[in-house]
Every structure is written in structure tokens, then in C-alpha cells.
Amino acid sequence: xxxxxxxxxxxxxxxxxxxxxxxxxxxxxxxxxxxxxxxxxxxxxxxxxxxxxxxxxxxxxxxxxxxxxxxxxxxxxxxxxxxxxxxxxxxxxxxxxxxxxxxxxxxxxxxxxxxxxxxxxxxxxxxxxxxxxxxxxxxxxxxxxxxxxxxxxxxxxxxxxxxxxxxxxxxxxxxxxxxxxxxxxxxxxxxxxxxxxxxxxxxxxxxxxxxxxxxxxxxxxxxxxxxxxxxxxxxxxxxxxxxxxxxxxxxxxxxxxxxxxxxxxxxxxxxxxxxxxxxxxxxxxxxxxxxxxxxxxxxxxxxxxxxxxxxxxxxxxxxxxxxxxxxxxxxxxxxxx
Length: 337
Prior knowledge:
- This is 3-deoxy-7-phosphoheptulonate synthase.
- With 337 residues, the chain is α/β, with parallel strands linked by helices.
- Helix content is 34%, strand content 18%.
- It is built from ten helices and 14 strands.
- Strand 10, helix 5 and strand 11 form a beta-alpha-beta unit.
């Protein structure tokens, strides 16, 4: 249930009403104070609450019952967009296009530092790089693990770029102290125990959509994190599995506006995993920028033909430089319309 209060209500009146609701009914009340109004989001069993009685209160503007199972991620509970802000000043969801770039996996100190410096010059605000790599084959390169995280930290010290990297097990969380945004990969989107534990952290979580998951399932996974108290969630559309075999996955570009209508959380797009083909990354990135994505996460490698992981879907620093200029200009134009 959502209760919208009339403007300029005394805080004492709001507190008294909230206390009455939580005392008399089995509900939790989330209070959102916006620029125009105050919204109370009731989570729990609201069937016993008389909506007509609530609407009759002189300080109540309107009352709505919510059917969607996700509450904290729901835009109805939180009309304004959520903006993820890092202590270093970078933001995602503030109306600009955030660029996250780097290799699929960390391979050496020289490799990750060289790529970090190049993507920063091109306008990237975040450095991505895999230390722990979930691979379909157990014989494929699995990442440098803890050593990879140390190398990412060295690249961060050299460039100042915040780190975005994937976690595969909650047991690894102590190693992620220097990581700025923890990524949950597509295969772990419904690893609910992992999501719950990440909800107890206070680091932003980049949650990727699963290979065959619906938008509602993605939002429910975000709900697991937010229900534990961490509301710093970034959603990522990275392509879903369809009947098409010409690309690695199929980028669901319509997911961006759909999610934005349903949720207040920022949405970014991963054209690298969506396509699996390096020449497709630029047109898909342009489409994502044009449709209003809050950011892009792109695989960049200084020598894709010799990459230990996903070289076929990586672009070079020179290609990223050209792409970054195009998408930033396009994003500014679209947002000015």
C-alpha cells in the first residue's frame, strides 16, 4: 500500500500516523520525502487496513494498493530516480551516461594498468575487470582471483578509477574491501543467499540480469538486496538467451525503458556480453545511449586476439575512444530533447 501525504505536513503528525500503523498492523513503513510530497510505503500484510479510513485523514492526499511483489525497488514507493554516488565523486543515475570499461579478466599488472589509463583518457569513470571468472568450461581460465583484486587496486591507485568487479561467493567478500562496486553476474542473479549477504554490505551492487530471466525476476532479485538494508543497486541488461544463434545473446533494449517505468533504480547496458561480437558493441552501445540507459559497461582489451577470456567480444582502446565520444555526444543530445 502507498499513502501519499499532502504537502507541508508537520513531522509530528507523520510520526504519529506511522506509529499507529506499525502498532496496529503487521506492516513496516518506509518514508520517502520528495520535493513535492511525502510518500509512505507499507510493506507487509495490508489486507486488514481500511484504505477508505486512511484516505479520510485530512493529511492524506491519496491511497493506492500495490500488486507487484517488489516493494523497495518499485517506483511507486520511490518516485524520484535513485542516484548511486561514490565517495570519489562518480555517479550513476544522475542523468549523465556513466562509462565502465576494462578487460574481461585481469591478466597482469601491465595489462590492467595500461588499459585503465587508456580508458580513463577516453572518458571512462569506472574500471571493470574480472578477478574471479565464472566460466562454462572448468578447463577455461578462471581468473587470477585474490591476486587479480590486488592488481585492480594498483590500477585504481594509478588512475583514481573506482573498481567494478564480480563476486562469486560470499566467502570472498573480505577480499573486496578495496572494490567500489560489487558485480553480481548473470549466473548468480538468483543466488538468493549471496544477494541477502550483499544486502548487509554498504557497497553499491551491480546486478546483472540472468540469461533467461524476466524483468520482474530481476527486480525481485534486487528486492533481496534492498530488503537487507542496501538500497544502492544498479541493474544491468546484458542480453538474454533466445532462439537466435547469430549472436551470443539477444540484447533486450526494451528492458531499459520498461525497468525505468517500473523502478527507480539506475539501469545500465552491457553490449559486450549481449552480442559476443566486437563489431556489434558500438551500434548496441549507441542504441542503449539513445534509449536512455544510465550507463554502459564495455569490455576493452589492449590485445584482444591474445586475451585469456572473451577476446572476441572485446574492443581495443582506440575503438573505445571513438565509441565513447559518440555515445557521450548522443546521450547529451537525447537528454536535451
